């Protein structure tokens, strides 16, 4: 299965409605969207900077410095991990889902919800790979700023942004009811 198959809305499993779920359960499940909002704000900030580079308002090296210092990529070298605090937070978020939230949902939910959890777990792996790829292209951009390295960085970032937005949307929609109904703490 390729990346575009994994994120194809028509191929993603759907969680069936949970009998007995209430509007209060769905409201509790909406907390996930607030957490995702922090990550989306970082993506929006980077996208705006890339647009300024394309428009000639900023230089490529400014973009590389911006990406390298933003929370998504900042402190990469300092912390010795993939991409610093924001990436640690995203990694923690996905690890928490994989190790704490998804097992609760798998234990309590039916086959439909289990299929959704399996797909979300696959998507977490893809997001991680794209974050690693972005870290590499940003490093290249810092070492050799120029149109080719900028284009690779922009392409990687655009794909990451598209994938993360799609993933968050899918996850929020499919888990909203179950998170509240099964009182999953997060």
Q: What is the chain-wise order of helices and strands? A: HHHHHHHH
What fold name stands as the CATH topology? Four Helix Bundle (Hemerythrin (Met), subunit A)
- The helix fraction, in percent, is over 70%
Whole-number count of domains: 1
CATH hierarchy, class: Mainly Alpha
Give the low-pLDDT segments: 71-84
Write a compact overview of the structure shown:
The chain is 76% helix and 0% strand.
Characterize the structure shown.
- By secondary structure, the chain is mainly alpha-helical.
- It has a single domain, classed as Four Helix Bundle (Hemerythrin (Met), subunit A) (Up-down Bundle).
- It is 76% helix and 0% strand.
- The protein has 8 helices and no strands.
- α4 crosses α7.
- The longest helix has 35 residues.
- The protein is elongated, with a radius of gyration of 18 Å.
- 31% of the residues are buried.
What is this structure's SSE topology?
Elements: H1 3-6, H2 23-29, H3 31-54, H4 60-69, H5 76-79, H6 84-108, H7 111-143, H8 147-181
Helix pairs in contact: 2-8, 3-4, 3-8, 4-7, 6-7, 7-8
Short descriptors:
186 residues; mainly alpha; Four Helix Bundle (Hemerythrin (Met), subunit A); 0% strand; elongated
